[in-house]
Structures are given as structure tokens and as C-alpha cells.
Specification:
The chain has 133 residues and is an alpha+beta fold. The chain is 23% helix and 41% strand. It is built from three helices and eight strands. The chain has an eight-stranded mixed sheet with strand order 2-3-4-1-5-8-7-6. A hairpin with a 2-residue loop joins strand 3 and strand 4. The protein is globular, with a radius of gyration of 14 Å. The structure holds cobalt (II) ion.
């Protein structure tokens, strides 16, 4: 079994402050990490849930992938992050199983992780992110 944990569930939102406030009021959740990933055009807030996270993401530019997602689909579930011990090995295993990689090789993610995305097509309609801590 290559997966060690559900690392995070990512929800695309238009107003990050409003979403953080909602999760604070609804669940008593607080922000564990906050980061802007310029490369992906994303601002994110990670809310800790045991050893996993809810990842709230909003676009930093109008033409970023998350901005286009919000335009097409509206707010909602964007991707699931699966935690793995070895991102490169997990990516190779996924590709061997028929998945279509969006990243040809692992790259830096937020909070010092190493990540790779796999296209929803070939993964039963869900955008998957492999996360190595
Ligand atoms: Co993510």
C-alpha cells in the first residue's frame, strides 16, 4: 500500500477569509499554515484535522487554473491529496496503472512538501495530488 494518509481535501473558494471564518465558526478549526504558491496562482489556508488538513484554496490571478475552475464549476471540492512516503515511486506506480500525470516529475509543494498531480481523466474523475512530507 503506497498511501500513508489522506493528506488533505482541497476546496476551491472565492473568498478565502470568508471560508476560513466559516470553518472557524462551524468547526472551531484554526489555520495551521497559510501560503501563497505563486507558481500555481493559489493562496491557501490549511486547517489541521488530526494528522490531515482541509486545504482552502483561492486564486491569486484571474487566469490561474483555480480561477478557471471556479468559473467553470463554481466553489467546491477541487482535489484530494494522498500522502505517500515516496512521491516519485507513487507517481510511477500511478502512471503504470494507467493514470495521466499532470506533472512529469515531483516538484515542490506548499509547507515544504514534494508533490505531483494526476489528471482526473483516468482517475475516475478526481484530481489527485500525491504529497510527500
Ligand atoms: Co493540494
Amino acid at each position: 500500500m503506497l498511501l500513508t494518509e489522506i493528506d488533505h481535501v482541497a476546496i476551491a473558494v472565492r473568498d478565502l477569509e470568508a471560508a476560513v471564518d466559516y470553518h472557524r465558526r462551524a468547526f472551531g478549526a484554526s489555520v495551521a499554515y497559510r501560503e501563497t504558491v505563486e507558481r500555481d496562482g493559489v493562496e491557501e489556508a490549511l486547517l489541521a484535522v488530526a494528522d490531515s488538513y482541509i486545504q482552502l484554496i483561492s486564486p491569486t490571478t484571474p487566469d490561474s487554473p483555480v480561477a478557471r475552475f471556479l468559473e467553470r464549476r463554481g466553489e467546491g471540492l477541487h482535489h484530494v491529496g494522498y500522502r505517500v512516503a515516496d512521491c516519485a515511486a507513487a507517481l510511477a506506480a500511478l502512471v503504470a496503472a494507467g493514470a495521466t500525470p499532470l506533472d512529469s516529475e515531483p516538484r515542490p509543494g506548499s509547507r515544504g512538501t514534494t508533490i505531483a498531480f494526476v489528471h482526473p481523466k483516468g482517475s475516475f474523475g478526481t484530481l489527485i495530488e500525491l504529497v510527500q512530507e
